[in-house]
Description:
single chain, alpha+beta, Nonspecific Lipid-transfer Protein, Chain A, 6 helices, 5 strands
Amino acid sequence: MKLASPEYMEEVRRRSNADPEYLELAKGHNASYTLVLEAEPEKGVAERIVVGFDNVDGKIGEVWRGERPTDFTLSAPYGVWVDILRGKMGPTKAIASRKLRTQGPFLQLLQGANRIIRWVEVLRTIPTEFEGAYTQYNLPGQ
């Protein structure tokens, strides 16, 4: 599945909501998120991709493509997202080094660090196709 495609986002919802460890860490969490994957034309990623989802009591509810007002916005060049998903860089390190830029209540985001780390682990189990120069890092999934 292509990263951030509608099929991918549905699989993100399905796997996240089926993972007991993630659900325990996310219990009581209510927030909405926009993820911005910035274009990198020089690396074969021609277009900016924007997806979002909401989290209601720890479960991912609706997923969508495109911009909407949300509690948090996380944005980075496409390659940073690839590095996070393939385990080259952790999500908290990406935020701390400002490679992954955030908008929203920063302290609340940091308080959910364990939840975010587990969520990325869940995402790594999804067969994922990357674009452009990043296709060499496609994830086989589990």
